[in-house]
Amino acid sequence: MFKKRKVDLIGSRSYEFFMLLPFFIGFLTFTIYPIFWALRWVLYDYSGFNKPFFVGLDNFARAFFRDKEFWNSMVNTFYLAFMKLIIEIPLALLLAFFVNNKVRGSSVFRIIYFLPTVFSMAVIGLIFTILFSVYNGIVNSALVGLGILEQNFNFFGGRWPAINVILLVSIWSTLGINMIYFLMGLQNVPNELYECATLDGASGPRQFFSITIPLLAPVMQMVIMLSVLGTMRINDVVLVMTNGQPGGTTEVAMTHILKMFFNFGAVGMRRQYGYGSALAIIMGVILAIMTVLYLKMSKRMKNVY
Fold it and tell me: Which one, 50, 101, 215, 228, has least CB within 10 Å?
């Protein structure tokens, strides 16, 4: 009986290994291999067609001292990440409070808020591009009809109007999933704590800051991390809505890096695998530093609460 149980245990472990094998192969193929591929060409000037030419650290020097477009894209990226943080997180928490209350129709609103999450970002970007179109866009028509604007406004004709439209789309597309995270956290807070606080004379705001926020801290830490890192890697909605226009002023870090590998048929621009690899390494280091700093801050917040 002991031997049979031992064989079953070995068979169970083999089954678990084969279950994990497809994910392991995908991780090696789409994560580990691209990292080593980028490290291979990071010290070369290579377009995929010419003979690789060793340039040493010149790719990094170009990124830090000569590529103004890259740092412009970094400014746009950090702006989107910061604005999403201060707008989306409180709004998602507010919506979670609303749908968590046992009011009539809360389940319907929960579905409505979550729906944008299931749509492709490319489709969402295309829809909002049409909505904010300067010629026949619904937004322009509504603003002119209400008398807010005297004539149609080109939302994609300037850097900051276009960036703010991208910000609006990004918030709209991920607000629902963050609301669900907060909702799950709120549903795990015992009602007895609020009842005891009410008997002790604690007001609603006092209960919110003394009970709700501390118990939601782990969920909030996760939501903040996912929001910031997700925004730092944003690219698809920018490519669909502006493709970096006008004049490359709405590029974000990932679209700028992507265009080093795929020039999208741009006239006079060639692929730059070596320089693109250097930018990818720099971006990876920035994300790693941000993650480490955030984890340290999270530990301090955990000790406070």
Answer: 101
Q: CB neighbours (10 Å) of residue 192?
A: 8
Q: How many Cβ atoms from other residues are within 10 Å of residue 38's Cβ? A: 19
> Across-strand partners of 35?
none
Residue 83 burial (CB count, 10 A): 17
pLDDT at 75: 94
Structure-block tokens of residue 112: 């409505």
The per-residue pLDDT for range 235-283, each reduced to its tens digit, is: 889 999 998 888 889 999 999 998 888 765 454 456 788 898 999 999 9
| Residue with tokens 């998602």, as numbered in its chain | 92
Beta bridge partners of 44: 54
Which CA distances in Å does 158 have to 194, 207, 230, 236, 238? Answer: 49, 45, 25, 20, 14
For the beta carbon of residue 248, count every other beta carbon within 10 angstroms: 17
> Cα 65–69–75 angle (5° rounding)?
95
Would you say 170 and 231 are in contact if contact means Cβ atoms under 8 Å apart?
yes
Q: Angle at the Cα of 229 (from 93 to 176), degrees rounded to 5?
A: 35
DSSP state of 45: E
38-73 tens-digit pLDDT: 888 888 888 877 788 888 889 999 999 988 999 999
How does strand 53-54 pair with strand 44-45? antiparallel
Closest CA to 252 of 233, 267, 270: 233
